[in-house]
Amino acid sequence: MENQEILNKETGTKESVALKPARVKIEAVEVVEVGEKKNKKLVCNVKHPDKEELIKLSSIKHEAKGKLEVDGLWANLDEDGLIRKGSALSVLLSFTKSKTPTELIGKELETVEDNKGYLVFKAY
Predict the structure, then answer these.
(1) Apex CA 53: angle with CA 29 and CA 35, to 5°?
(2) I need a surface site. Which of 40, 54, 65, 94 has the fewest CB within 10 A?
(3) Local confidence band at 4 (pLDDT 50, 70, 90 cut-offs)
(4) Is 116 left (phi over 0), alpha (psi -120 to 50) or beta?
(5) Tell me, what's the pLDDT at 31?
(6) pTM for this one?
């Protein structure tokens, strides 16, 4: 369908089917550039039991300062060129007992919904 054809489409009647939280398996990881500033973010391609295709997750829900927060897996580096200590990415690595993002491949993790209904990794 050409982009211009969308201009003549009506709203459908079918509700979108949201995936429910479940245990997922990380099949691949990649770093993508996001936004105008091209900030780097880790994206995990995961297998969800209710979907044939892989889905992409790039946030975690974790405990920070005594409360649960959702943060993106931003690939921020410290002055030594290592993943910044205390970042959401470092929390995920520690939670999964992984030294590097590549070691996340093959790990199974639970997911939960964030406040907008999107799936995120549960890391608490």
Answers:
(1) 50
(2) 65
(3) confident
(4) alpha
(5) 97
(6) 0.85
